[in-house]
Write the structure tokens for this entry.
Amino acid sequence: MQSFVYTAAATRVVFGAGALGELGREIAFLGAERALVLSTPGQAASAHRVAELLGERSAGVFAQARMHVPIEIARAARAEAQRLGADCAVAIGGGSTTGLGKAIALEVDGTRRFPIVAIPTTYAGSEMTPIWGVTEGGVKKTGRDPRVLPATVIYDPELTVALPLALTVTSAMNAIAHAAEGLYAHDGNPVTALMAEEGIRAAATALPALRADAGDLEARSDALYAAWLCGTVLGNVAMGLHHKLCHTLGGTFNLPHAEVHTVVLPHALAYNAAAAPEAMARIVRALTAAGRPGGSAARAVFDLAEAHGAPTSLREIGMAQSDLDRAADLAVQNQYPNPRALERGAIRALLQRAHEGARPD
Ligand code: NAD
């Protein structure tokens, strides 16, 4: 076995149908008294329900979270937290809402603690990472800071029943992407590899059941369990070509987060396949355990997405052919660890296949 370093992050996880009911107990457990409840405008009703549940422990609701955490929104949320005397945040929603909670925690002065309780309603996994992101002047800055890692995560599958099927599928593919890249991370370790494989299996197991019945609580639990495992992998080890490409495509060309991950993943895996055979074998093993047919990892992932009605081409999610050259240039601007060296020509070809939605070998 290779030598490795593994740092366990100290997030408390409360998991199960109805777990939202434990929120008051969890806030008290943190030693906090007044929570600012965060959500997107679309999930304001859920945020108000949470505030009601909290009663006196609610400082108020800030329902203006937006994709990629615009700095103006982060500042407004921070000012609101201060005005209302909040000493913690409850973020109910996907990565955008968790991200807003992180942006508040990041700027709180060094002497104060501002814990976040995350209640994820997608499978993006941000709740398990110390990674923050804020967008200023059209540029998204990201970084790592242990202060932004949520102190407590409440995974309640009942809250995910309303997640539309299309986003359910692409968000689960987003989770699979964290795990897949974690399996070939230069700083990977046997513990995150276990989590990654189990996360892929659980996500792929949930999808057919959710397509048949979006309210299937057992399958919703599997998907959230996958989000937890895959998010933990994302938070612990370095991501490679796939995540860098998605960051560029999402940020520069304003493409939707989970869809970009879904489309790009099979092509990024095909690019890395020969350089990371063990990771590919583990991805296939996880998908086979979930009842998927075998084949290459890239093809198996492509087929999983396609079988559940997800987009398979960059074209159909709004990327122009004329932007592919620029995307390839941006992708090789900074070098970073990836199983296969970053070659501009091969990445341009990868993007072309992803644009067309070609099925990998
Ligand atoms: P999102 O949070 O933007 O949510 C998409 C939309 O779905 C929103 O309008 C949201 O309100 C709605 N929604 C969420 N859950 C719902 C539910 N259960 N029912 C109905 N509607 C629901 O999407 P996302 O994919 O979860 O997050 C994407 C963002 O998170 C990106 O900005 C990405 O960069 C970031 N992210 C960060 C990390 C990290 O570690 N920092 C990890 C993953 C994603």
Notes: Residues 190-212 form the longest helix (23 residues). The two ends are 31 Å apart (CA to CA). The longest strand covers residues 88-93. The CA atoms of residues 333 and 344 lie 9 Å apart.
